[in-house]
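Entry 14. Structure prediction run on the chain below.
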Amino acid sequence: MSRLLNILVCFTLILGPLCVGSYFGEWRWPLIYAATTTGLLALVFARPKKAGGRVSFSVLLTLLLLIAAQGYWMHYNTGTVFIENEIIGTVHYFWQFLPLESQPYPEYVGGVDQAEGWDRLSYILPCLLIVLAVRQMVASRVLSLRVLCGTIFWTGVAVATLGLVQRYTGAEGIYWSDDLILKNRPLFFGPYRSPGIATSYMNLGLALGLSHLLATTRRLSRRKDAKPTQPLFICIGLIILFTGAMTAGSKAGTVFAVSTLILWFVMNWRAVFSMLRNATSLLPSGSPHERNIIFSAIAAAGIFGVLSLGATVTERWEKSIDNDHQTLQVRNIANSVQLKMIDQPEWGWAGYGPGSFFPLFPFHVSQEEGKALNSKWVYSHNDHLQTLVEWGWAGTGCFVLLIGGGPTILLTELINEALSKKRRHRTGNLFYFRGIAIAMFICLLHATVDFPFQIESIAITFAALLGAAWAGKSLRSNEE
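Output returned:
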């Protein structure tokens, strides 16, 4: 059963990003079914043997149940139906809310449309399951951080490889398919139809891949018959991933890719220099000159890869500067509209309900703001404000505690490890702790200007990392 659970988790984490980024209607369901099945089986069969971590598990379970309960209630007590460009009888409803006489409890808060609400809940609820399931699997040692992080890293490499090949071949549609050609949005990358979202996912894999390199190199350097094959393959994967993140065409993604490298190096600089010193033990000759040549070639390959494919990013930066950073101005206007929406609902503590941003947003845009926001906004390009709009202060507070709790546990363990004389965690796990914390932090930062958490594949991947973070304290060992 442990092997089956590992296969299911890895399959879920690979399926989402490669299945057209889980962005198109029917393409999303295989990932949702896989995540739900994996989560339910893991909860039944993966139970930690140690008693440690019960408090964190209870807190985690409470937060997940509160979020699920609020989301279900808002969906159940929906009071209107949203109609977009539809003819009913002789009336053409372009963008309208019709009241529902069948609302169960009209005097209480409810959502604005069940279809839009279910569209969000259909992947949010599996995400909550994945958080709890991965937490249990990691805490019970059924799933190792090496397998979890390695799977996400190599899937990110696959996404980057596909995107770079598309750039070289001039592909017009995702997977070169005529059915996946976007006439209004020709700038896609890999299986994602938005380069910003693709970069958000690749930056997750980049942070984890860097830590995976450190952990793998250290583990192999302690063996007598070790070979450099795995570290070299990981280095090649990192070059591809970083090149993809830098050249996908997202201005924000480029900034966050560089930020990931800087932040990771700051947190791991001692381990990096230690890896460089010990790398000679993996080489056949054991020569430091051979090591220097290899690392110089890797660095050169990364630089040339970025420079040779950086035309798209350079072009987008130039357009942004020529237009006085028009994209940022439009998003700032959208943010101000959302702040206005947050202040206006009668039930501000609960928001308008999951999936309410898309149908409600135009009604809060004034005529003056509408000149800049002249397109349909499915997502707000700021996940944090969209969460406040849809979930209110109560739901958002639970999300803050849920998402903030994982990194807090990891950082607490890292600080305790640095200050304590005893060794509580294996060194490899500490590397992964740092990678997971950086990956989540960068993704949350990127969510202020894009919408990665509205994309099922990224949301479920983030949920898996969050579950591993909540299990951090349970991974303490007795190793001296």
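Residues 383-419 form the longest helix (37 residues).
Filed with the rest of this week's runs.
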